[in-house]
Design brief:
This protein is mainly α. The chain has 2 domains: 2-141, Voltage-gated potassium channels. Chain C (Four Helix Bundle (Hemerythrin (Met), subunit A)); 154-246, Helix Hairpins. The protein has helices at residues 2-24, 29-52, 55-86, 90-94, 97-104, 107-113, 121-130, 143-154, 156-181, 190-201, 214-246.
């Protein structure tokens, strides 16, 4: 009896490993096929939501769009529970970014089913828009986006320092402009002057507020020139990290224990939790 239970547990574990390899990885033909089917389904489901927002199409093909929406909802529901069943820590995956996106892809349709009546039309419309979150499911199936994500994570500290510097500059420039121009030129408060500094430094230039004095215009010119230099900084930081990430070969293996990705091609253990891959 004990041997039978051990054999059953072993078969179940092997099934979960195979399922995990198909769903979370793309190194096998089955995994690649699964990714292709899911990508096509995601694109088609988002297209259905977009078409449903066009009144003429909804009036003529409303029934078909509803059936299509429920079909994709059931499909993504099955996929969601299969993902939870093949990972070692289902709750950890469910609370991760992709786990929440997967949940957002299916919850709105079910909620709209339980909220009938004209008084809830606004709520249902919001829920329909939330289905667009399905497009974020594409992120985990595109190697280029993984590469960009890896580069952004590697450069996050430098970007935080850069943003802090920009934040400091706009406070200083905004306060100076408030003192120089004053309320008569539209700079009625320091926060409003900081808003102008942000618009000017980022070279957006709405034109709703502008300096009138010569000194103020000279300061604005300096801020504009600094703005052009600042734009190049984050681009250089991320580009450097992308170049480094491109030279590093990674596999599509995903850790069953913690769902970590971007492991080295020859990695045998997870870089985050140490679990065997």
């Amino acid at each position: 009896m004990c041997y039978a239970n051990m054999k059953k547990d072993s078969s179940l574990e092997k099934y979960r490993e195979t399922l995990h390899e198909i769903i979370f990885e793309a190194d096998t033909p089955a995994g690649k096929l699964f990714d292709i089917i899911l990508i096509v389904s995601i694109v088609l489901s988002v297209l259905v939501v977009m078409l449903d927002s066009v009144s003429t199409i909804r009036n003529s093909c409303g029934g078909f769009l509803v059936l299509s929406e429920w079909f994709f909802t059931f499909l993504f529901t099955i996929e969601y529970f299969l993902r939870l069943s093949c990972v070692s820590r289902p709750f950890k995956y469910a609370t991760s970014f992709f786990g929440i996106v997967d949940l957002l892809a299916i919850i709105p349709t079910y909620l709209s089913f339980f909220l009938p009546g004209s008084q809830f039309l606004i709520v249902i419309r919001i829920l329909r828009v939330l289905r667009i979150f399905r497009v974020f499911k594409l992120v985990q199936y595109l190697v280029e986006i993984r590469l960009l994500n890896q580069a952004l994570r590697a450069s996050r500290r430098k970007i935080v320092v850069f943003l802090f510097t920009v934040f400091t500059l706009v406070i200083i420039f905004g306060s100076m402009m408030y003192v120089i121009e004053g309320e008569q030129s539209g700079f009625t408060s320091i926060p409003r002057s900081i808003y102008w500094a942000i618009v000017t430094l980022t070279t957006v230039g709405y034109g709703d507020i502008s300096p009138k004095t010569g000194f103020g215009q000279a300061l604005a010119a300096v801020i504009m020139i600094i703005g052009y230099a600042i734009i190049a900084v984050p681009t250089g930081i991320v580009t450097t990290e992308i170049a480094r990430a491109t030279g590093r070969k990674v596999s599509t293996q995903t850790c069953r224990a913690c769902s970590a990705e971007d492991h080295d091609i020859d990695a045998k253990y997870c870089k985050d939790c140490g679990a065997k891959l």
